[in-house]
Specification:
alpha+beta; Penicillin Amidohydrolase, domain 1; disordered N terminus
Length: 404
Amino acid sequence: MDRRIFLKTSLFAPFCLKEILLGAKEGKVFYTGATQKSFEALEIKGTYHQIGYQIGKRFGKHIEKVIRRRSDWHSKLLTILNSREGRDYSKELLRLTQKYFPHLLQEIRGMADGAGISFHRIWAMCIKSELLARMPQQLSGETCVQARESIMPGCSTIFFRDKNNAWLFHNEDGNAAYQDVMFMTKVTPPSGVRFISMVYPGIITGNGPNLNDRGVIQTTNYIGSTKSQTGIPRYVISRAVLEAKDAKEAVEITTCQPRCYPSHHHIASFTDQTYYSIETTPEEEQIEEPDGVYFHTNHLIFDRTKRYKYEDNAYKNTSSLSRYEVIQERLLKLNPDYAKPGDFLDILSSHQNAPYSPCRHPEGDVQGATLGTAFFDLKKRSFRIYKGNPCGAVENQRYVELGF
């Protein structure tokens, strides 16, 4: 990948940044505030603890805001974590993270230190899916669908390739509590593999759309499960992908063992134009290389992985299948010979089947919201991020282009 890619509207162009240059103990940090078109952004260079520390220091108020807004949810996480079974389970996840990705555990600890929030409160957010699936009885008092929907709204993704183009589009959906607190990071870690990522406050980087300076792209789709195993947490695996040196290594990381929770990863490369769709469960994985028009929401669709017996069918049959059917219907009407990026962005802006539509808006007890939309052009080597719901952001050109 040509690392001299020019950014015509980069969040990270030096002239846009308010510089906060700190000493060796804290690393080098640059910050820029949000605009109508862009999220807040932090550029960091340092050790893994310094990276986490500066994220926590700058966005600690955002983390606290999310915890306040989702106090019942966070209290449930802590109740599970502080139970005897929860403590034993958490210790095993910590042990395995320390064994395979000790530097990322340092990053999480740094985030807690920087935010001035106890480690176990941050750790609970980083293993939220695993905890809630481990002890689902904590969801009593709410219907299973409402509870999980309020926790995991999901995402919608479309890939398109023809002889001239290769495009990846992704709606990043989350709880409405994150709508005004999402941010971007540009990080230079000790490995030297720089990366850009959209970040949820309180959760280790890697869950939102991301790109590194070796040309490796990742977006993810949550897969609901009613059970979690002992293994490496899914957010830790997604974060590890950010420092992959090529798409092949990224795929290897997504399928590393032991895994404790199912997931889906879109991995692509500016460098060799490859694209992979990877579904994983704790026991199984399947790697596909789709061509033409392809899409994915939040349920397992591959032959081997869809046999996973603990998939959360209540979640699948509401939020995920609803969006899947809308996208499928719209794509069938599209002539791929004349397809333009706007056609796919229009599909992701659809409100058909709301509140379980591709473009998510909170409605009643359903608190899913589209927080941003990513558009990767593999041929042009560009990464565009639209701020907020695509229904408004695309029409109003509310986006920035990012890169190295």
